């Protein structure tokens, strides 16, 4: 069997990915499918960290847009990510995978407080680490948290799960003429305002040459295909010929 292309990855999951057909909250069938794919690559020997959003429960920007004070809204969003992290942990543990949830906001009864060296040690001991509560600071997205944590733990790639099969020139759900990109540079993403991740996250990845793969989570087997080196989705790096 083809050996894994990556030894250590960071998987970025949006909270919206957990909604399924419900419109709100967590669809357990969707969560079961996601965790089965994660377990499959874990069994290949890949070290996995996960950053999960909270948009299926509460989005800080949406709350702020409706008149809520931005910092308070963002903290509420961080708490939503903890709920998702605990749900993800529970299903993974039920599948026999040892996990640890680390929160950027201290809540010792529910999760470990984030400590970089401890997170790395968990990965080395074959535990999946789920990072919750973003960066622990308002005004920063979970995209930025994903970029930051990926660099701190020495991940080789960020795998960003989405609802579409890569990065397009426009929203393919609204614009049928949208063009899909197979490869992009960080500068392309910033200049074209392609919304792969927020500008802070892209800049962090660019400064540290950390590749990003954007792929469709709804296509069964995509995570494993990427790990085994197949071309899936859109690759964002520092060079067009990467």
Structure overview:
It contains 8 helices and 11 strands. The strands form 2 sheets. The chain has a 9-stranded mixed sheet, sandwiched between helices. It has a two-stranded antiparallel ribbon with strand order 7-8. The protein is α/β, with parallel strands linked by helices and 242 residues long. α1 (28-42) crosses α3, α5 (142-153) runs parallel beside α7 (199-207) and α6 (186-192) runs antiparallel to α7 (199-207). It has a single domain, classed as 3-Layer(aba) Sandwich (Carbamate kinase). The model has no long low-confidence stretch (mean pLDDT 93). α1 links the parallel β1 and β2 (47-52). The longest helix is centred in the middle third of the chain and has 25 residues, at 70-94.
How many helices? 8
Shape designation = globular
The fraction of residues in strands falls at: 15-25%
Mean pLDDT: 93
Q: Largest sheet at a glance?
A: 9 strands, mixed
Named CATH topology: Carbamate kinase
> What is the total number of structural domains?
1
CATH superfamily: Acetylglutamate kinase-like
CATH architecture: 3-Layer(aba) Sandwich
Low-confidence stretches: none
Compute the CA-based radius of gyration.
17 Å
Total beta strand runs: 11
Q: Which series of helices and strands comes N to C? A: EHEHHEEHEHEEEEHHEHE
Which class best fits the helix and strand makeup?
alpha/beta
Query: How far from one another are the termini?
Result: 24 Å
Order of neighbouring strands in the sheet with most strands: 4-3-5-2-1-6-10-11-9
Q: Indicate the CATH class.
A: Alpha Beta
Overall helicity: 25-40%
Assembly type of the chains comes to single chain
